[in-house]
Amino acid sequence: MNSRHTRRIRIRLALAAAILIPAFAAAPAMAHDALESTTPAKDTTVTTAPGRVSLTLSEPPMDTAQLKLSVITVTDETGKTLSDGTVTVEGPTISTAITGGANGAYKVLWRTVSSDGHPIEGNYSFTVQDPAQAATATSSVAPTPSAGTDSSTPAPAAATAPDQIKPNDDNAPMAVGIAAAILAIAAAVFFIARKRRDKGARA
User: Fold this and answer.
1) Do 109 and 72 form a contact (C-beta atoms < 8 A)?
2) Which residue of 97, 98, 166, 200 is most buried, as measured by CB atoms within 10 A?
3) How far is CA 108 from CA 33, 93, 120, in A?
4) Which residue, among 118, 113, 53, 122, has the nearest Cα to 83 in the 3D structure?
5) What is the pLDDT at residue 100?
């Protein structure tokens, strides 16, 4: 085998290695478990709030009751956390119990460890429209008074401010006349008394 042929073989092997090594290196990343289904299903609407939320993966996660590597958090539309923090692992399915929340969108955040040892996580949502909750919310609203019934209490008349009270001047002319008469009488009495005193002094 000549050196030229040997060199060609080495070049081919190097090219094959350059192609295959990245492929093998990428294989573990492609082996991560994937979320296959959820209960309730993603983007669906249910008429009763579920008592439990579960997620099924393509392979059982690397988790046990002792490790507690899986996390599922469920919140309702108001932001209230409904999950109790405990996650059950049964084969490829992880689940958590939840309490009932308000009608509207429920958001599920989850995280676990894939069977290949890599952490995986995601989120999804579903909607709860419970007619019983809607009826309760409607009945709790206070009834609006009918148009023919006036349940309001009349507001008391506003007190008139002292500076807004105008004096009654109807008797002003009479008062002036009486005052003038009194002054005239007093002047007459004074004049008569003085005249008598002058006569007595002359006598």
Assistant:
1) yes
2) 98
3) 18, 15, 14
4) 53
5) 86
